[in-house]
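Before the break, one more example. Copy the sequence into your notebook; we will annotate it together after we see the structure.
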Amino acid sequence: MGSRSPRDDGRRAAARAAGVAAALIAGSLFCLFIALVVQSTSTSGGGGGGVREERGAVYSAAVAVVSGLHPSNDLLHIGTLFPVFNLTVHVEVPPGGGGKAGGVCLGGHSVAAIVSYDGAFLGEGSVGRICVEPQQQEGAVAATAWGRDVWMPWVLRKRLAEEMERGEAELDVAVPMRGGDVLVCKAKIGGDLSPCTLEEASN
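Here is what the structure looks like once it is written out:
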C-alpha cells in the first residue's frame, strides 16, 4: 500500500477545516433562529399580555373643574389650592378588538387617576373598574379627583388662569393600566372627550 503524498494530506486538512466551518455556521444560524423565536414569543402578548390586550381599544377622557381652581378667586390668590375635578374616561372596543378574552378593562382596586398641569400635581382620585366587551363597543367610567394643600408655582398659576379665562386650559390626566403602561390624556377643561394614548411607564 503506497504512502500518502503531502498533497493528499493537504486536501484532507482542507476538507476537515471546511467541515468545521460549516458546522460553526450551522450552529450560529440555529442559535439566531432560537433567539428570534424567543423574542417573538415574549412580544406576542403571551402569559397575560396586558399591554397588547389594551391596544385594541380607543381611549378618550374629559375633565371638568368642580371647585378650587377659579382663575381669580383661587389661582391668583396667595395660598395653596384645594381643587376638585370630575373625570370621565371613555373606552371604545372595535369589533374583534380587545385581548384574548375579548374585552378590555381599566381601573379597579388601588388604581388612581392623577391630574396635573404642565408637570405640576393638582389632584388624584380612584377609578372604578370597567370592562368593555366587543359586542358592547363602548363604555365609560366617572371619577372624582381632588387635591389638598396643593402648591403650584406662580408662573404656572398665572398662565393657567389666563388660559381658563380664554377657555383654552388643558389638564393632563394619567391612569395606570395593566402591564405597567399608563393611559395619558390631555383634556380641555369643560370640553368634550379628548383622545388618549397608551404609553410605557418611565423607569
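The longest strand covers residues 58-67. The mean pLDDT is 78. Try to locate both features in your own notes.
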